[in-house]
Design brief:
This protein is 42% helix and 17% strand. It has an 8-stranded parallel barrel with strand order 1-4-5-6-7-8-9-10, surrounded by 9 helices. Strands 2-3 form a two-stranded antiparallel ribbon. It is α/β, with parallel strands linked by helices and 263 residues long. The chain has one domain (8-261): Aldolase class I (TIM Barrel), CATH 3.20.20.70. α4 crosses α5 (104-113). α8 links the parallel β7 (166-171) and β8 (187-191).
Length: 263
């Protein structure tokens, strides 16, 4: 885990406390996951759509630590349908309740409203969290390199793939890229938001793109303001962008997604 004081610290402390008190049988959870029908292929969908134009992972997000409440009347069903109509490849749904005002219900409503594969956006710190992601109906789990030690990340990545989930490993710098590759990640997201200052560094993703090996799908996260940013990231070698605030707050979410893809 990062040794610097970051906005993640309090969030992770909360999630690790919840995990420490979770006494459910992991073997039982894994068995239940193995009995589920196949997940919608998150990585495969991104890979397919990226052959035409940059793929868009459209996010359903009620609140952010930096901006507060984003949309008071947020309707996950409406947004999921609007994003799909605009050509989104996948959804990302916040399920963290305490810090982002998300919920499992938001994810399940969104997943039922469209045919797009869904990423559970949360702070995954335990094997139980990974299984819960599958059981709630998500198709991909987020693992944040800054939140996990290298062996935790590798173990959770292995568990996720063994129960049918795709995994988006989020990194910020070269050291975390090495951790992601140690975990054999095939889908890596570069978060342009600095963990210490919370500022967006638009050069971070451009710098990191050159270092991510071919064969790994590259996703740029945070700070994508519109089509010009998406185009620059596509030209830098990114297969997809994950976009939240600008889509959630858009008057026309369908048109906003379509503009990002620029088809």
């Amino acid at each position: 885990m990062s040794q610097k004081a970051t906005y993640l610290d309090r969030i992770l402390e909360h999630h690790r406390a919840l995990a420490a008190n979770d006494d459910r049988s992991l073997a039982d959870l894994v068995r239940r996951c193995e009995q589920m029908q196949a997940a919608r292929g998150f990585r495969v969908r991104l890979q397919m759509d990226a052959t035409q134009a940059i793929a868009v992972i459209s996010e359903i997000k009620r609140k952010s630590p930096s901006k507060g409440l984003l949309r008071a009347d947020l309707d996950p069903q409406f947004l999921a349908d609007a994003y799909q109509a605009g050509g989104a490849s996948c959804l990302s749904v916040l399920t963290d309740e305490d810090f982002f005002a998300g919920s499992i219900e938001d994810l399940q409503i969104a997943a039922a409203a469209c045919t797009l594969p869904v990423l559970r956006k949360d702070f995954t710190v335990s094997p139980h969290d990974v299984c819960d992601t599958r059981l709630m109906g998500a198709d991909c789990v987020l693992l944040i390199a800054a939140a996990l030690d290298p062996h935790e990340l590798k173990d959770l990545h292995h568990l996720a793939t063994s129960i049918g989930l795709d995994v988006l490993v989020e990194i910020h710098d070269e050291a975390e890229l090495e951790v992601a590759l140690f975990a054999e990640a095939l889908l890596i997201g570069v978060n342009q938001r600095d963990l210490v200052t919370f500022e967006v560094d638009h050069h971070r993703a451009l710098r990191m793109a050159e270092l991510i090996p071919s064969g790994v799908l590259r996703v740029a996260e945070s700070g994508v303001r519109g089509p010009a940013d998406a185009l620059a990231l596509h030209q830098a070698g990114y297969h997809a962008v994950l976009v939240g605030e600008s889509l959630v707050t858009a008057d026309d979410p369908t048109g906003a997604v379509r503009a990002l893809r620029n088809l």
